[in-house]
């Protein structure tokens, strides 16, 4: 197939001749291709020289096709038509392809999903699939269009990825109001909710706040997805970023404890570098309004 392409004249000269045949002259072809008629004339002459055959007859400002020109015009019309149909089909299928987004359960459930109707009001044609996963995945290998993750400061960006910061949000220690209804208490005296997957992250942040993780009474859950639910039910304290627990804080289902020293984190949208369809850009830009 590659050798056949090498045997063909340049695509620009074929387009110039095709436009000349369809519009009946160099001037009309130039307007259709957004170039000067002199440029079209030069391309057609170069094509005739390469093929060694006259394709058009010039009569002042108009041209007519020779027999060879009519045959080539028919072939090019069919070929360009087939190409246009194939490209249009590709664009339509890509526009309909589901937008796959990887993120954590908390981000998907607490931050993105409640506001998805806003995105669909702007782009009703885009179908979105949120795929929660506590682990960072290879976007390209797993076939994701983008990811939303915490971007740790100082961590190098892997090659082939683009990072767009969304927001910086503090980590909070939150619990149900009933858990502290009797007034301020020592955080070491209350149970702390964690999971197997998130305990190393919790330990690091608890130490930053001056707490001793080894002294804390832990309620160990098998799944990080259950941590917020357990906190709402009054089973203990949980660490969460402010943007994740914001709806619960506003609704009064959770309150933030005055634990000083907890750090802040950056959330970012992560995209594979290279060409991407408009739906991906639409969603990435919309996320910037969500993480305010």
Outline the structure in words.
The protein has 292 residues and is of the alpha/beta class. The protein has two domains: 2-95, Arc Repressor Mutant, subunit A; 97-292, 3-Layer(aba) Sandwich (D-Maltodextrin-Binding Protein, domain 2). 44% of the residues lie in helices and 22% in strands. It contains twelve helices and eleven strands. It has helices at 2-6, 11-23, 26-33, 37-51, 67-96, 105-112, 116-122, 139-142, 199-208, 227-232, 242-251, 278-290, and strands at residues 56-59, 62-65, 99-103, 128-132, 146-150, 161-175, 191-195, 217-221, 238-241, 255-256, 264-272. The strands form three sheets. Strands 3, 4, 5, 6, 9, 10 and 11 form a seven-stranded mixed β-sheet that branches. Strand 7 (191-195), helix 9 and strand 8 form a beta-alpha-beta unit. Helix 2 crosses helix 4 and helix 6 crosses helix 11 (242-251). The longest helix is centred in the N-terminal third of the chain and has 30 residues, at 67-96. The two termini are 52 Å apart.
